[in-house]
Write a structure and sequence with these properties.
Two copies of one chain form a homodimer. Chain A is an all-alpha fold and about 220 residues long. Chain A has seven helices and no strands. In chain A, α5 runs antiparallel to α6. Chains A, B: Belongs to the PhoU family.
């Protein structure tokens, strides 16, 4: 294995590591909401700087790799895609912090209703994150497309959550403040899924040279039927 | 001027052009909401593919530039930053489409109340977009910091809008659906401003090698007093 191949392997490893940290942040932030665990919320917020540091590290490694090794086009695209992906991952980490902040606030007030859709959204978002990065390092177009297809389910769950919360607010206006905060959590999770979808679109562009946006994908799927 | 310098100038021009298109999309989407102008909303939605095309074009130009000219570190960082910035711009374009979609829906229902804070948020977001890109092409750290400082004003306006809408919903639950849609518009505008802030943070990192996140900036400002 050449030095460059080793360095590329290192880079992939760091991207996967950053993805794992983000997945953990999503899982823990939602768990801290459901279990009303203030310490866990604070832990998520406290660990975010580690995600940001890895973003900078990967950026620096990438620049160095490009400048020193002058990789050919295929590897060059892979590295610049890694740089874009870590930007999405860093934003996903920020969204997990936002969830943890709302969890802290909500733990100060009585529980509005048991959480069912939000934990489901969280599981989907975690899976999409993991699979989007897997698709990237393995250059797996099918897996990337699979992630994009899951975005609809997250959107549908978000709409369900918002509808349900609207119903609460209309029935009993004293629930409005809590309902709004919970609606924010659902929107943060939907945005996390959106980022995983964006990563997958970048993977498809990298592998197939095609722009797949969600709309185009649905057309692609219809053609295959 | 060398061929490379010309190509770099071209790249800057395209980034500014993409920024101008996004600025227009923001302005028109909010105007279509305030003026209940369905045709304008549809025009914003229809033009989005042009923003996406420019994103791809800038990406391809950047890859070609790096592969063919093997730029030294400073120029290399500038080009990879351009690639990240266009990702943010493309997302901002998507958010303008989201605003236009809500505008279409709201034009089907009676006006809830005159729009005051939302047009203000829109002006701020447009200005932040323009200045963030100016700061990038001119490598202007001060201007980038100035954009980041404006983010607080947008956040404050968003909170005002949400508070006001909550009040409406509590007073008269029949307003809930319209109030929610307007709250989404405020949140889209806040996210647009966030993207402009992210671009500015990337400019500061490019120019000064420093990570400035909003919190660090407030500390920096305090030290100077």
């Amino acid at each position: 294995m050449s030095v460059f191949d080793e360095e590329l392997l290192d880079l992939k490893g760091k991207v996967l590591k950053m993805g794992a940290m983000v997945e953990t942040a999503i899982r823990d932030s939602v768990r801290s909401l459901v279990e009303r665990d203030k310490e866990l919320s604070k832990a998520v917020i406290g660990r975010d700087h580690q995600i940001n540091s890895l973003d900078v590290e990967i950026d620096e490694d990438s620049i160095r790799l490009i400048a020193l090794r002058q990789p050919k086009a295929g590897d060059l695209r892979f590295i610049t895609t890694a740089m874009k992906i870590t930007t999405d991952l860093e934003r996903m980490g920020d969204l997990a912090v936002n969830i943890a902040e709302r969890a802290l606030e909500l733990s100060e007030e009585p529980l509005l209703k048991p959480y069912i859709d939000i934990p489901r959204m969280s599981q989907l978002a975690q899976g999409m994150t993991r699979d989007a990065l897997d698709a990237f390092v393995k250059r797996d177009k099918r897996l990337a497309m699979d992630v994009i297809m899951r975005d609809d389910e997250v959107d549908d769950l978000k709409h369900e959550v918002l509808k349900e919360l609207l119903f609460f607010m209309v029935q009993d206006p004293t629930t409005a403040s809590r309902a709004m905060k919970i609606s924010f959590v659902a929107q943060y999770l939907e945005r996390i899924a959106d980022h995983a979808t964006n990563i997958s679109e970048m993977v498809i562009y990298l592998v197939a040279g095609k722009i797949i946006r969600h709309m185009s994908l649905t057309e692609e799927q219809s053609k295959r039927k």
